[in-house]
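Newbie here. two chains, one complex. Structure please?
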Amino acid sequence: EAQVTQNPRYLITVTGKKLTVTCSQNMNHEYMSWYRQDPGLGLRQIYYSMNVEVTDKGDVPEGYKVSRKEKRNFPLILESPSPNQTSLYFCASSLSHPIYEQYFGPGTRLTVT
Amino acid sequence: TQLLEQSPQFLSIQEGENLTVYCNSSSVFSSLQWYRQEPGEGPVLLVTVVTGGEVKKLKRLTFQFGDARKDSSLHITAAQPGDTGLYLCAENSGGSNYKLTFGKGTLLTVNP
């Protein structure tokens, strides 16, 4: 089954404790992206990757890091999480460019206390 | 960053009614996508429109792309409770631009 998986689905952590949210897709897609979704603010793009070792900032990259060492994986790293990063995070992938259909993961609900 | 405005922000209607939601921008789209998101899940693509004036139909849903490619609408005929969800539009300006910008969405509730 073609899918995007994210782990963990739920995470409660404390300020400053580094964490990684994993994202993996099995569709051989070149383009992958991370979004955060907040009430009243909609979906905002954090980082995206056009291919292995090629990443770029979205609209809200501050406080986040990403890497793309393999085509299928695109982890999101929070080196020092803060309460304002409490949010619902989605990973997505598409064929080669965002003009194509984005396939979204199930989401990760992160709470930073 | 291109700003996408969606309206209305909230819409609550009775089963069987028709409705239209809108997505507008100050700049020209290269392509526009409409997604629907149900609670607890990621968005799912409904349609992509790329040509000015384009109209696409998906069962009871009709999508229109404005002639000037700065606006789009989604019309639902005879809404059903299963249409309940958050409707999002997303745009990309194409070419070497790899960013995808979403509107804030329209939260639709269809009451039985």
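Moderator note: Chain A touches chain B at residues 4, 31, 33, 35, 40-45, 48, 50, 56, 58-59, 90, 92, 97-102, 104-107 (CB under 8 Å). The first strand of chain A starts at residue 4 and ends at 7. Thread marked as resolved.
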